[in-house]
Design a protein that fits this description.
43% of the residues lie in helices and 18% in strands. With 321 residues, it is an alpha/beta fold. Helix 1 crosses helix 9, helix 4 packs across helix 10 and helix 5 runs antiparallel to helix 7. The structure holds nicotinamide-adenine-dinucleotide (NAD). The site of nicotinamide-adenine-dinucleotide has 29 residues, from helix 1 and helix 3. The site of nicotinamide-adenine-dinucleotide (NAD) has 29 residues, from helix 1 and helix 3.
Amino acid sequence: MPAQANHSAPTRVAIVGVGNVGATFAYALLLSGLAAEIVLIDANHARVEGEAMDLNHALPFTHPTRVWAGNYSDCAGAVVTVLTAGAPQNPGETRLDLIKKNAAIWSQIVPHVVKANPNGILLIATNPVDVLTYAAWKLSGLPAERVIGSGTILDTARFRYLLSQYFAVDARSVHAYIIGEHGDSEVPVWSSANIAGMRLPQFCQAQQIAYDREAMEKIFLQTRDAAYQIIERKGATYYAVAAGLMRITQAILRNQRTVLSVSSLIRNYHGLDDVCFSLPTVIDRGGVEQLLRLELDSAEIEKLHRSAEVLRKTIRSLNLD
Ligand SMILES: NC(=O)c1ccc[n+]([C@@H]2O[C@H](COP(=O)([O-])OP(=O)(O)OC[C@H]3O[C@@H](n4cnc5c(N)ncnc54)[C@H](O)[C@@H]3O)[C@@H](O)[C@H]2O)c1
């Protein structure tokens, strides 16, 4: 069943987990004027009250919006509930420890959100985002089209930005996707990457420059490892992911049918099933309208299978069934 829009109600967006990512998204959403109501929910209620006060003081410069520190019952009627709650990774903890902690947080949060709001869309950013998108789908019982992970929206943005710098064109004019896991096993789709419909080798030929495979590989590695580079310098990443969450939210609220690389349940794609990862996806008011079944070359298919296997292994370790 698609998300049901109540056209008489103000457009509400709920945010669960208002740390770096959640607060930056709330700020971007407020500036955009897209939501009439923004409810902030976090285990640290004092912090979230402070965020609500700070955001409300921007209202004379922005748009009439109701912003408040709420609780799970306030998710009722939200078109989108953005989940960015997560435990910090403590020194000495493995990635799997963190996954188990965040999965435990999920089993607290998701049932509360869905009880208050069975008709909304869940948009997940917490890492590991593909695994937690799958867990949110299982725990919520929602139709898969209403459970979306930010997936590789950020990696695709980084990829397009770096390619745009290399080829000296606007990042919005570069059409190239990162698919699969948001993480180390992600897959760059070179076979269809293009500028103005010209595949990159063709574009180079037209520009009378050599197509430099090594430079391309370096761009992919910079894309894949960008988070490590940023975290080393400033401790966390939040502006670009918040902008990506904004773009997904806008596509939903405005029913835009925008193609975005986001994570959702995969069914029968190159033999892959029952796992969440990113593919170019048409997003509309109902959430996932359709996954675009990209044609891939054989090396890309093989990498995607490896990426899916990494995700499946983690999903299995959580014993969600
Ligand atoms: N998907 C992406 O592309 C992407 C990019 C950047 C960060 N992230 C992820 O987003 C998550 C949040 O990052 P951050 O920098 O905002 O972290 P943060 O520590 O600043 O914020 C996390 C918030 O979650 C809250 N929280 C923890 N447990 C909770 C619970 N049980 N109920 C409600 N709230 C709870 C905390 O109080 C905190 O305010 C992390 O998992 C991070 O890895 C994802």
